[in-house]
Amino acid sequence: MKSQLDLSDYPLWTALVTPFDALNQVDYDTLKTLVNEQQQANNGILLLGSTGEGLALEISEQRAIVEYVCSLSLCVPIMVAVGGFNLTQQLAWLEFCNTQPIDAYLLGSPLYAKPGEVGQTQWFEALLSATQRPCMLYNVPGRSAVSITAKVIKNLTHYNNFWAIKEASGDIATFESFRDAAPNIAIYSGDDGLMPYFAQAGAAGLVSVAANAWPEQTAEFVRRSLAGTFPNLFTTWTGAVNSLFTVANPIPVKVLMHTQGRLSTPNLRPPLTHQELSCNQALNIANKSILSWN
């Protein structure tokens, strides 16, 4: 088991894609390569998030991925996503994950059900109580169809393992309301392109899609954003990052990584498909721009 890592030493977490082979099975050789690339860049690794198509995988596949990555004895932290809408299943998932050398969890809002503040508070209380490991709450109303409110955040601040928030609503006012409600909780941007703005508002770092395609460059982008002394960060990054979200994530980033030769296929699990992306020109331009960025 890894020694306990200081999570504050990792301002960038890569929401890792799940690579598939030609038969649409998990490609573990490629997964190892991708994980090693992130380790070389000293990026934290998030497994089985929306970018990793976690909810499209069988439970057996989810377990196998976690066990495999944990077996690699990495020197960077591993965070695992906890998401869905069946609380019993999520508690069982945490029970399994607690047996593995995992450093942290990403706790998503319950999907589809659209609970209010009481229901959300109870959901997160149950999950936070099921582990002693650090937890990052995930506000992503674009996927969960409901926003976590500042009141819910405040309701949960007494949990010692409530470590951080991933704020992915794209709204700086929401970011600031979370900071006011829980000044001792670290807040990470969930939007690559907004990282310089969120850094100015006090963000601790970024949970990134772009770092899949550009591990080293995204790490430097985050360092410069947090330093606050590098003007014009948006000049290169905004257009490049936008190219990764022209259709549903992770379709574009997988297509780009296939073009880069880093994925053997751009395959995704249904209902997602790389056939949604009819033109790669914007991705190719973005890739050339980022790889020449300094």
TrEMBL record:
Binding site for pyruvate: T51, V207
GO biological process annotation, one example: diaminopimelate biosynthetic process
SMART domains from the UniProt entry: DHDPS
Enzyme Commission designation: 4.3.3.7
Keyword match Cytoplasm: yes
Pathway membership, UniProt: Amino-acid biosynthesis; L-lysine biosynthesis via DAP pathway; (S)-tetrahydrodipicolinate from L-aspartate: step 3/4
Residues forming the catalytic site: Y138, K166
Enzyme class: lyase
Statement: the UniProt record of this protein carries the keyword Cytoplasm: yes
Family designation: Belongs to the DapA family.
Known role: Catalyzes the condensation of (S)-aspartate-beta-semialdehyde [(S)-ASA] and pyruvate to 4-hydroxy-tetrahydrodipicolinate (HTPA).
Name of this chain's protein: 4-hydroxy-tetrahydrodipicolinate synthase
Organism: Pseudoalteromonas holothuriae
Gene: dapA_1
